[in-house]
Known about the structure:
Layout: H1 3-11, H2 16-41, H3 43-50, H4 56-72, H5 74-87, H6 90-110, H7 114-117, H8 120-150, H9 156-185, H10 187-192, H11 197-214, H12 220-227, H13 235-240, H14 243-278, H15 283-297, H16 299-311, H17 313-339, H18 341-349, E1 352-355, H19 376-386, E2 391-394, E3 404-407, E4 410-413, H20 417-420, H21 424-441, E5 446-448, E6 454-456, H22 465-483, H23 486-493, H24 499-515, H25 518-529, H26 537-553
Parallel strand pairs: 1-2
Antiparallel strand pairs: 1-3, 3-4, 5-6
Amino acid sequence: MSVAATAGSANRSMTREEKKVIFASSLGTVFEWYDFYLYGSLAAFIGAAFFSEYPEATRNIFALLAFAAGFLVRPFGALVFGRIGDLVGRKYTFLVTILIMGFSTFFVGLLPGSATIGIAAPIILIILRMLQGLALGGEYGGAATYVAEHAPDGRRGFYTSWIQTTATLGLFLSLIVILAIQTYLGPEDFKAWGWRVPFLLSVFLLGVSVWIRLSLNESPAFLRMKDEGKGSKAPLSEAFGQWKNAKIAILALFGLTAGQAVVWYSGQFYALFFLQNVLKVNAVSVNIMIAIALALGTIFFVVFGWLSDKIGRKPIIMAGLALAIVTYFPLFKALTWAANPALATAQENMRATVTAAPGDCRFQFNPVGTAKFTTSCDIATSFLTRNSVPYDVVTTAAPGTAATVTIGGETIPSYDAVAAGDQAKAMDTTFTTAAFTSLQSHGYPLVQNEAGAFTMVADPAQVSWPKVIAILFVLVLYVTMVYGPIAAILVEMFPTRIRYTGMSLPYHIGNGWFGGLLPATVFAMSAARGDIYFGLWYPIAIAAMTLVIGIIFVRETKDTNLDAVK
């Protein structure tokens, strides 16, 4: 295509058919992300309904296991549906993915709990969750490929950026629906049965999405390829079994999507986790602040997609990575002072010390929630980490002795849960009560209920909403920089005959594994070091790796003619 023709395509207005393509693809993808995020937001309620025969800790473990299943199977969905999309067509493949996602979500809302059908309930739930992950693994690549193949040269970044808004809009929609139903029903009814309503409502979104997608035509690039007989007969082996294509997938993973994923998860999901679980801000307030930041920031997916058509995809993505690397530590520290200044002050003034025997402390990496940490050191460090207390570990205790925690001038003995046996619960109460009392005397923001139980909370009057929202907005802005142009550059890296397969796998390995494992990895690193910020080295290190590989090896693609990619 000539420069003049490309310029003409870039300057013309969007046609009605192109608007329909973008709207239908985006709406369906918003719906799929909405379904996917519901599970994470409602994991505690799901755990209580489907694992009721277990104690609370085990319920939450199984609920998180099912959540992890949705992430870990996404690359397999990319392989299954990517292959179908390159063989059969983009349109019909992402019709299948949306139906699988929609019905899986709807059936979660209908599924009886374990109190009614026993062990079948959690088994069916995990199967449904895996189906959701498989469907999502096929949806994104199909939608991005479909839109890109309808876009004129010179505008692919802008057109595909609308798809990039869908994950954030899906999260935003799920938060709004949950908040609305919680407010309308009240906490008791929502806990009893109201949590099912967001899942059931998805059937209406499914109907609208399917109806619109049925009216679409197949991608013109795919039709041209079929007419010319240039389609791939074995997309998987061609995409990943031939080095010329496999190396592109490897570069796409390590030079683009791995870094993009950790910045995305840090800015949207870990920021939410950090506010709620580390800084102890009220969950409803956190959801509202995150929703406001997302509402303010979402348009920048489109802004940076549009800008990538002008200056290139690569400079924007690399700039987003670089900004995250440089500013994550100061931003998250500023978030602590803005959301819970009492906690920030206490952390500056008092640092605990855990004294343990060599080998008593383990690295608490627990991505699927099944490992048990029962040594006296693990119990002590886990308690301090959960309550956001900084600490040092000194391994000078005699072998076989229980670890101790020193808070100020007071030393509190921990216990080994296995050795304690039936006395473990009583010993835990003794340990935590003494530790909480000492922490409270050193300024940690703890409240005690009528039963004497302590809870660490952020004082709502001290939470600076404008500052928190401003910091969250900056984090979301980084997300839009790395994510806004990513669909366009991935699509442009692969030829039409294997595009769906080729771009889907690195995207979902990056986002499903590098990103999906981020919360567990960050927690484990923070627990090992006794520093609530230390885990940030994980997204910083991955982003730095991607920045270096991306700058050196990933080529700019904005002027690519999709039909000419070999």
